[in-house]
Structure formats: C-alpha cells, structure tokens
# Entry
Amino acid sequence: MKEFLGITGLILNEPLLWEKGKKGRSGFSLPRRDVEGFPLDENLIGAGPDFPDLSEVDVIRHYTRLSTWNFGVDTGMYPLGSCTMKYNPKTNEKQAALPGFAKAHPLLPSDLSQGALQLMYELEHLLAEITGLDAVSLQPAAGAHGELTGMLIFYAYHQKQGSPRSKIIIPDTAHGTNPASAALCGFRAIPVKSNEQGILSPATVDAVMDEDTAGIMVTNPNTLGLFEEHIKAIAAIVHAKGGLVYGDGANLNAIMGIVDIGKIGIDVLHLNLHKTFSTPHGGGGPGAGPVCVKKYLEPFLPVPRVIKENDRYVLSEDFPDSIGKLHAFYGNFGIMVRAYSYILSMGAHLKKVSQLAVLNANYLKESLKEVLHLPYNRPCMHECVFSDKFQQADQITTLDIAKRLMDYGFHPPTIYFPLVVHGALMIEPTETESQESLDLFIDAVKTIVKEAREHPELLREAPKRPKVRRMDETAAARHPCLRG
Ligand SMILES: Cc1ncc(COP(=O)(O)O)c(C=O)c1O
# Structure
C-alpha cells in the first residue's frame, strides 16, 4: 500500500514538491536549437536555487490535491459565527474578471479610468443609501482597518473642536478588534458590561460618559447576535456630552433595508464587504471595510476621494481636514467590483437577505436549545450563541463538540467567543443555507450531544475523518516546536 502514497489520486498523502522532483524533468519543452551555441557569461552561471525538476502535471496535481484538503463554503455548510461565511455568487467573480476592471492600472489618468471611477462613486452612493448615512470611503482594507479609520476621524473631529479627548467606551459585547483599534489611535478603552439580556443599558453608559470621552463603539447587532435596542437612548447620552457614536456595522447582514443607521444616532460606521456583500474571505485579504459617516464628518474622510465634475469622475485630494491616506492607491478595487455586482444583482432583495439570515439563525436556535445551553433565551439576529454547560457533567467541552462536527462534514462554528459566554459556540448559518442543510446540521448536533452521553470518547478523539487529526495540546504545550 505504502508505495502508492502520493502517486495515485485516491490516497491523498501528498509529498513535498522537493520529494517529487526528478532530475531532468521540466514544465516546458523548447524547440531544438538551430543556431550556433554561445557560452553564457561565467557570472550568470552559478549553482542556482535548489529547485526540484518537475513536469507541469506534477505541479498541477500537487496543488490540486492540496486544495481538496481545505474546507470552503463551496464544499459545505460553514456556520462560523461572527465571520459570515455566506456563499459568494459566481457572477461577482465574472464581473471582477472583466478585462476593463481586472487589468485597470491604478496609475492611469482619470480620463482613461472613467468606468472604474464611476463604479467606485456609485458603490459609495449605494452604501450610503443602504445605511442611511451621507458619505462613504471605500479605502479601508478590512473591518478592523475601517475601525481604525473611524477612530482617526473621532480624533480629528475632537481636535478640530479644540477639545481633544482621551477615552472611548466599549461594551463587553463589542467585537475584539474595537478596543484594539481605539488603542491604536491612543484612546483608552473604558469597558462597560452588557445587562442580563445581553445588551447595553443606557444607565451603564450614562454612568461613565464624560467630557473627556471621545465617544462609544457599539457593535450592533452585537457579538451575542442581539440587537442593541437602546441604541437611540445611548446615542443621545453620548451626544449630550459632545461625544460621537461609532457603529461596528460588520453585522449589517442582519439589518439591511430594515434599520436606518443614520436615524438611530450613529455618526460613523464601518461595513465588512466580505461579511455583508458576499465578497470572498481569503486568508487575510484582500478585503474592504468601507467607512460611512454623517455629513458633518465628511471632511475628515480619507483622500483621495472620487468626485463628479461636469459628468466626469475625478480623484480629488482637496480635502484639507482629511485624516489622509490609509491604503495604497484607493483600496482593494477588485473587491469593490464584487460588492457592486452583488448589490445590483440583489436590488431590493437585500432586505430579504437579512430576513432570511435572521430566520435561519432563529430556526437553529429554537431547534437546538433543548440540547445545548442557550444563555440568552430570546430572539436573535443573524447568529446565536450556545454554551457547553449541559455537557459539562460528561466532561465534554465546546472544543470536543466542534471537532466532532468535522466528522459529520461541517465546518465547526466559532468557539470560545464572545468572551461573555463561558464555553461559547457561536453559530451563524447565513441566509444561503436551505432548510435541508440546516436540518442536517441540527441532526448532526443532536447526534453528537447523544454521543457525548453514551460514547464520549468519540468526541474526545474527534475528528477522525479529516486529513489532519486533532493536535495533541498537552504535548504541544510541554514540548513546543517553534521551528519547522
Ligand atoms: C462585528 C465585527 N467587527 C469587526 C470585525 C473585523 O473585521 P476584519 O476581520 O475584516 O478586520 C469582524 C470580523 O469578522 C466582526 O465580525
């Protein structure tokens, strides 16, 4: 059996390319030389890099096999809470691959980039309309980068008012990147606790808001998947003391077309195009975290900005109060094309997207709350958070449940986040899962919960089916191997 490893297409134990190489193999063949040979300059003939000799098919098979070890939303349900692994319609890719977009060079003069600039201009206006805010910058490259942009705008605004401030209020249900972004701008995060319903009480904010506080950062819906119902009252408290309200709008996928962000008191908001507008999440990027602001904060947005002058689109740096530039050129343009394509193809159905995302999450919540502990037993938005409390008697943890789900062909949910729930399992089905796949998932969780009672070793040893098994955490902690 052993000699087949890495040779056939069925036993996918793939060796390194270095192990596969064979002297003299090559990925190309040149025609026979029909001219006199000419010796190369001695200085050019070194030992050369130690690359293996491989044929094209060796390399293609190697990478194609490796790609099948991965799990993606195109292969199965990926209920990773907080990350919104919704299906990315393929038409988005098709539009982004159009040569006029894919080959556009960022250094082309605006006269030769009218299509690209028009797309950016229109996308900004679409996002302003969807959120109910007035002006948008597409420049930030991710959600956290959008937060940083927002904090720089907070800083610039207070500076311009002549009263710089040093603190930011951040609830315990905010996304973890919020305090980090605030700290990066030199603000001191003032943590506040959510109430027994998992949301923020106005009185809690009132108790800490003062004239040295630049504002508050509210993730809404929050990381428990709950809508911050008191946001208007909270915004009024913050505004009354001269502060600003930052909305982490990464979870907008739950409230599109339903909540007018401008009307609930939020001054600055970022969006995660890769969560809400179906652009790909790819190993760390490229992404986009556009920032939307109220009119009076528009002068602070990053430059350059796309403006329209006599029916032509141009890039302008003429915004003296701008916080400056946050990304090379204008942001990740290919991602903007995908989001624009999604928004235009969905049109008014964007509201339905949110309704279905919320419906699916509530269906899962109601179906599983008998077998998994639900710390906040109330209607949720696009995701729901359980804990491993019921399984503790069998010494089964959230990690065991998550690993066992892999044996049933599902990507595990987010685990041990948010921190306000001990042993959290955060499940986000997204709107694109059918009832059949939700039912399969529910069946798998119920079976696992039964196994936890009857055959706990199945969970402790899981996963057994995937290519890579569970890491031996004790050995890893005792004998850390920090070098490859
Ligand atoms: C609520 C929330 N805020 C912020 C972020 C950070 O976004 P990014 O990972 O793009 O930096 C995320 C990421 O999933 C999020 O869910």
Remarks:
- The pocket of pyridoxal-5'-phosphate is lined by residues 82-83, 142-144, 175, 177, 219, 248, 250-251, 272, 287, 289 (CB under 6 Å).
- The chain has 16 helices and twelve strands.
- The two ends are 28 Å apart (CA to CA).
- Residues 461 and 470 are 7 Å apart (CA to CA).
